[in-house]
Design brief:
With 115 residues, this protein is mainly β. The protein has no helices and eleven strands. The strands form two sheets. Strands 2, 4, 5, 6, 9, 10 and 11 form a seven-stranded mixed beta sheet that branches. A four-stranded antiparallel beta sheet has the order 1-3-8-7, with no helix packed on it. β7 and β8 form a beta hairpin.
C-alpha cells in the first residue's frame, strides 16, 4: 500500500551534515508512524527517530540533538537532517511506514562518515 524511496545518503567527513529524504507513494497523513532506522555492518537494525501523523516526535538517545526528523505533507516526504556526523553513524538508513498493523520499508540509503 506504500512504496518508500530514500535518498540523500553519501560519504561525508566527521562533523559534516546530510539530509535524508523518504518519499512516500501516498499521503503521509494517512500513515500512522513514519520512522528512520539504521543498520551498521554486523549490527542489529536500530530506531533513529519517529514522527506520528499527529506530529509527535521521538528520538533515540544517541541522536543527542544532532538529528531532526521532519515532514512535508504536500510532498509526501519525511526528512532526517543529520548534523555533526560521527564515524559511528555509518550505516544504511531505512525509512519505515507503519500503516495500522502493516509495515513498509524503503530500500535504504548508505551513509558513510569518514575520519
Amino acid at each position: 500500500q506504500v512504496q518508500l524511496v530514500e535518498s540523500g545518503g553519501g560519504l561525508v567527513q566527521a562533523g559534516g551534515s546530510l539530509r535524508l529524504s523518504c518519499a512516500a507513494s501516498r499521503s503521509i497523513r494517512d500513515i500512522n508512524v513514519m520512522s528512520w532506522f539504521r543498520q551498521a555492518l554486523g549490527k542489529e537494525r536500530e530506531l533513529v527517530a519517529t514522527i506520528r501523523s499527529g506530529g509527535t516526535i521521538n528520538y533515540a538517545a544517541f541522536v543527542k540533538g544532532r538529528f531532526t526528523i521532519s515532514r512535508d505533507n504536500a510532498k509526501n516526504t519525511v526528512y532526517l537532517q543529520m548534523n555533526s556526523l560521527k564515524p559511528e553513524d555509518t550505516a544504511v538508513y531505512y525509512c519505515k511506514a507503519q500503516l495500522n498493523v502493516l509495515s513498509y520499508w524503503g530500500q535504504g540509503t548508505q551513509v558513510t562518515v569518514s575520519s
